[in-house]
Amino acid sequence: MRIWIKAIFITLAIALVVVLFDTYLFVDGKDEDTQNLVSETLITRKGDDPQTINSLKDSLLAAENSKNYNIFALRLSNSYAKLGKYDSAARYLAIIAQRFPNEESFKQTGLMYFSAFEQAEGDHEQAMLKQALFYLEKINVETASLNTRLAMAKLYLANNEPAKAEKLLETMVATDSTQQPALANLGNLRFQFNDYRGAEQCYSRLVKLDSTNVNYRYFLAVSVYKLGQTKRAKILFEQLKVSSIPEDLKADVEEYLNEIK
Fold first, then answer.
1. pTM above threshold 0.70
2. Does domain 162-261 have CATH number 1.25.40.10?
3. Taking the domain 15-160, which CATH number applies?
C-alpha cells in the first residue's frame, strides 16, 4: 500500500466529546427542584479526586430511593468521564439504563462504551465493542444523530460486519447526500473492499462538495486508476501534483504517474 494511503487513509476520527448529561433524561419523576439541584451540581464541579469518587460510591450504596440512586450514579459516571476512564463511566450509565430503559439512556450508555472502545486494547477492546453495540442497537437509528450513526458504522466494521456498516452509511447518504463524514466513510469502506466503482462515486461527490480537500482528490484519482481509466486518472494526478500538497503525497502521485506512462 502506498505511503500516503498508510498515513492518512480516510477513516473518520469521530471525536465524541464527553458532555455533562441532562439529569431529566434519566431521573424518574418531574421534581423540578431536584432536577435543578442536580444540574447545578454537575455543571459547577471542576473535577473529582479519588476521595470524592469514593464518597459518591458510598452515597450510591446508601441511597434509599431510585431517584437519589440515579443522581449519584450519574455523578459517578461524569466524574470518571472527566478522568478519561470511559469504561467506568459507562458502567454507571448502564446502571441508569437498566433502571430507566429509554432511548436516551441507551444512546448515552452506548456512546460512552464507544469512547471506552476507542481507547481500549486487546480483549478489553472487544468487551467494550460488544457493550457499545448492545446498547446502541436498542435505539432508533433513523432518528439518531450523525455522530451516533457514524459510531455505529465504526463498531460494525470493528465487529467484522462490513455489510451492516455499509448499509447504515448508504442510508445516511441517501437521506442527505451532502454529509461529508458519511460519504467519506462509505468511500473508505468501498475502497478497502476493492469496490473502486462505488468508491469513485463517493469521492467524486466529495470533491464536488470540497474541491480543496487533497484526501478526497487523491483517493478519487486512485479509484479511477484502479478502474483502468488511465487517461482520466492521469489528469487527476497531474492536477493534484501542481497543488500545495505534502511531500509524501507528492511522491505517491509521481509514482502513479510513472506507472501510467
1. yes
2. yes
3. 1.25.40
